Amino acid sequence: MSAPISARSLKRADKVLTGIGYVAYPALLLYLIITGSPLLLACIIIPACSFGLITLLRIAVNAKRPYEEGKAENLLEKQTQGRSFPSRHVTSLFIIASSWLLVCEPVGIILCLLGCAMAYIRVKGGAHYPQDVIAGAIFAFALCAIGYAIAYSL
User: Count of CB atoms within 10 A of residue 17's CB?
Assistant: First the structure.
């Protein structure tokens, strides 16, 4: 049996994975600029629109977080009230992964795996319910699939 994951380890992993997203997205855009890819505009507009839609959905639903309802310990020491559904951290990482999948599948796959790790951390840390992170991943893939399909058809 393995030892429980400490709050400190969860917080550190959460910050590292968030940081990877902050690096992976500009790296994608820089790569597209350097290579002169016609995907550049789509890889700016579609993630921005997807992120905006998810933010509006979170505000509209305003679901409580597990730590607010006393159903989980707040191991990530979040202060946010409500706006649990869907997880914006997970959605963001999967939006970035979806965009990378168009350009470089191995990088996209690695980012998807890191998105799964982020989902685990957000649930284990008490910031989200499983449905919050699952919905975040599904919304990210769905919005990007629709957005990039439209972009390719233009």
Answer: 21
